[in-house]
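Hi all, posting the design record for the shared folder.

TITLE: backbone redesign
STEP: 1 of 1
STRUCTURE INPUT:
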């Protein structure tokens, strides 16, 4: 069946990834991909510290290729190393760093480790981060601790496409501690992300705009006030002219 073939290939890739991570623990591994080529299998390892993956004079690479041949029966495995451009925004590297700190310093300083890693990620320009540490920390009773900062989507298409999630394990004396890291690298491209920019216009543009815009008509209230004022002036003129005309008529009668 074709489905079984695909499942077997994916399962083999998962086993190769787990084997390489266990073999190269503490090297800042990000992604591990397995590709088939005409010459053989090609394994791409993305790491924040490629020098540790290569080793002195390529010792780590040689031992890794020989162990892959024996473990997975690869004919000609070729290992390619790629450098991660922004390791602070990669959840796999952050989870590996937290597990390394916990195994080195223990559970007594787990809060300081969580806040330190969280501030490093936010200073690198991330929109938000969430760290969940589950296990027997700091007492013998298992519980979960959550460190959260910034803006992080929890549901919808944005949470599936723009939030990177990774898992890690720290093996301590009290037991195994699980680590979950969720990082949202940026808020660009979101539907609720609105940027308003104020553009300062030069005085020449403002003068040209004033010339182009026609003068607006006076409002109705001012026009009515002007009409009332003109009517009142006409009334006062007529009131003054009437007594003068009456006086002139009386003079003319006397003369006659």
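Okay, here is what came back for every position:
SEQUENCE:
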């Amino acid at each position: 069946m074709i489905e079984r073939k695909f499942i077997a290939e994916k399962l083999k890739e998962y086993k190769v990834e787990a084997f390489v991570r266990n073999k190269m623990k503490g090297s800042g591994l990000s992604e591990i991909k397995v590709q088939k080529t005409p010459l053989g299998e090609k394994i791409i390892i993305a790491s924040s510290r490629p020098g540790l993956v290569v080793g002195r004079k390529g010792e780590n690479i040689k031992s890794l290729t020989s162990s892959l041949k024996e473990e997975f029966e690869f004919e000609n495995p070729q290992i390619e190393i790629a450098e991660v451009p922004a390791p602070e925004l990669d959840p796999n590297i952050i989870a590996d760093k937290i597990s390394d700190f916990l195994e080195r310093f223990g559970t007594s300083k787990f809060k300081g480790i969580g806040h330190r890693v969280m501030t490093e990620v936010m200073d690198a320009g991330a929109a938000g981060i969430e760290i969940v540490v589950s296990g027997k920390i700091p007492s013998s009773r298992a519980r979960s601790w959550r460190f959260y900062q910034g803006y992080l989507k929890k549901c919808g298409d944005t949470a599936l496409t723009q939030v990177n999630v990774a898992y890690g394990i720290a093996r301590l004396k009290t037991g195994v501690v699980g680590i979950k890291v969720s990082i949202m690298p940026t808020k660009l491209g979101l539907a609720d992300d609105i940027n308003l920019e104020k553009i300062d216009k030069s005085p020449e543009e403002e003068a040209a705009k004033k010339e182009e815009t026609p003068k607006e008509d006076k409002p109705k209230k001012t026009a009515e006030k002007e009409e009332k004022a003109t009517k009142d002036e006409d009334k006062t003129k007529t009131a003054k002219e009437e007594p003068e005309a009456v006086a002139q008529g009386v003079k003319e009668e006397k003369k006659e």
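COMMENT: DSSP finds eight helices and seven strands in the chain.
Let me know if anyone wants the other runs.
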